[in-house]
Specification:
The protein is α/β, with parallel strands linked by helices. It folds into two domains: 181 residues, 3-Layer(aba) Sandwich (Rossmann fold), CATH 3.40.50; 131 residues, Glycogen Phosphorylase B (Rossmann fold). 37% of the residues lie in helices and 16% in strands. The chain contains 14 helices and twelve strands. Strands 3-2-1-4-5-6-7 form a seven-stranded parallel β-sheet, with helices on both faces. Strand 11, helix 12 and strand 12 form a beta-alpha-beta unit. About 1% of the residues have low confidence.
Length: 342
Amino acid sequence: MRAWVDLTNSPHVLVMRPVIERLRARGWEVEVTARDFAQTLELCDRFGIEHVAIGRHRGERRRAKAIGLATRSAALVRWARGRRFDVALGHGSNDLTVAAAALRIPSATMFDYEWATVQHWVNGRLARAVVVPDAIPPERLARYGVAGKLGRYPGLKEEYYLADFDPDPSVLEQLGLDPTRPIAVVRTAPDVSLYHRFRNELFAGVLERLRGEQTVVLPRTLEQRTELEAQGGFVVPAGALDAQSLIAAADLVVSAGGTMNREAVALGTPVWTTFEGRLGAVDELLIAQGRLRRLSSPDQVVLVKRAPDEAGGRRVRRDPERLVELLLRAAPERATATGGGA
């Protein structure tokens, strides 16, 4: 059996890595395409995921996104034609589902934020299987045409792809950080996302509050990196790094996006969200459980050293095999009946 995996953003490398590994362990042939955006290509290299780089992000405006979808999907069609894939798998990749539909390849998609309307309207209708956390009420997804396609999993996707993860403390030395002093990790706002288009003033205030501390800021784009380096007062890594080990060692995480917040939750690190868009069901549940806190003022951020064993016992490790099984609901019946062998 042959699978095609497409990666369009850096978090997708993390969540799809164990899926790729388990498919190959079953005897599948897996080929990977990746978009040049954020640290996607760098993370593929870091995790040893061989890939073909196709396309780039076209910008935040709707017209630019539409052009990007059309041009990259067409490029994927040209690349994939004749490769005889049995199934195409992605995490929120519109490009993949459009290209797969054009080539009549059954596809599966994953996502864990239900309000990215345009993305899900396309993927929900074109994909054969749609995999989401069970925290999302099915009625929130009905308008996306996912009836009969939903596969739901318990917990966070981060608990699955971090199941085999153990922190590497050397990341602190690489960044010149003193482990005896408090460490903050900040992820910049997703300025190019349609669901989060406006400037986040709260986030800017957090940066000012943490300037001069041991604060590692992880930018999403080259423009953000340039601005941060010009401001000074922060540690800005030169490229992709072991962010999960950094989060595990941190005393505080602040992020306007979703994946890093949930990684912090999964690793037991105190975390604040500055997200100003519409909260998804996963974050609503984490906030209700007290595992994620919503920031309303920069003054709430207090950077102190936490006890070394504070996170002990709070990690949840879940078997990624569950995600593989849900994704393969899109594959031909012979794929599961034969165990995926050629």
